[in-house]
């Protein structure tokens, strides 16, 4: 079989995902049998009215919240049954988050905020990671801001750091 015709596995997918909040007397079903696959390199918009489950779906897919039922994969790794320690490592090593509030550490400069996830992982960046970070910093127009703290940056610059 020619592997070049085999599509790569999805970057993320969920199957029959359900998430219910609240008490048994007054449950709120935020997700109801959702199945979704997102391919590598794909741009995907999750749209819907307020309260339709968009944030819940993203939180479950990013392992920030657990589903009530259903399954979640990141790449080829099923994350549904992973424990807290495994989920922490997975989030730290494989998922990037950009929140509406950028959540930058105010006492760290741009360089420190960029390096923080790797430092939290208890290691120094590899040469490949340093080269990738340097390339991203340059392409995002942040090279002249590396020693600035978040309060010294515009909102757009803070978002690019995040």
UniProtKB/TrEMBL annotation:
Instruction: State if Nucleotide-binding is listed as a keyword.
Output: yes
Report the protein name in the record.
Peptide ABC transporter ATP-binding protein
Record bears the keyword Nucleotide-binding: yes
What's in the GO CC field? plasma membrane
Superkingdom of origin organism: Bacteria
- Tell me the InterPro entries matching this sequence: ABC_transporter-like_ATP-bd, ABC_transpr_LolD-like, P-loop_NTPase
One Pfam match, given by its short name, reads ABC_tran
Source organism per UniProt: Microbacterium ginsengisoli
**What does the record give under GO molecular function?**
ATP binding; ATP hydrolysis activity; transmembrane transporter activity
Keyword entries, A-Z:
ATP-binding, Nucleotide-binding
| ABC transporter domain sequence ranges | 31-162
């Amino acid at each position: 079989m020619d592997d070049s015709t085999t599509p790569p596995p999805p970057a993320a997918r969920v199957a029959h995902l359900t998430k219910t909040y609240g008490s048994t007397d007054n449950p709120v079903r935020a997700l109801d049998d959702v199945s979704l696959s997102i391919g590598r390199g794909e741009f995907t918009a999750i749209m819907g009215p307020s309260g339709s489950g968009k944030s819940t779906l993203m939180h479950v897919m990013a392992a920030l919240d657990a589903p009530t039922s259903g399954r979640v994969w990141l790449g080829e790794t099923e994350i549904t049954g992973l424990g807290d320690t495994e989920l922490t490592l997975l989030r730290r090593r494989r998922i990037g988050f950009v929140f509406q509030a950028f959540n930058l550490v105010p006492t760290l400069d741009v360089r420190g905020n960029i390096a923080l996830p790797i430092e939290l992982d208890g290691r120094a960046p590899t040469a490949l990671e340093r080269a990738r970070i340097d390339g991203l910093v340059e392409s995002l127009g942040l090279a002249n801001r590396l020693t600035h703290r978040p309060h010294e940056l515009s909102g757009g610059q803070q978002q690019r750091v995040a």
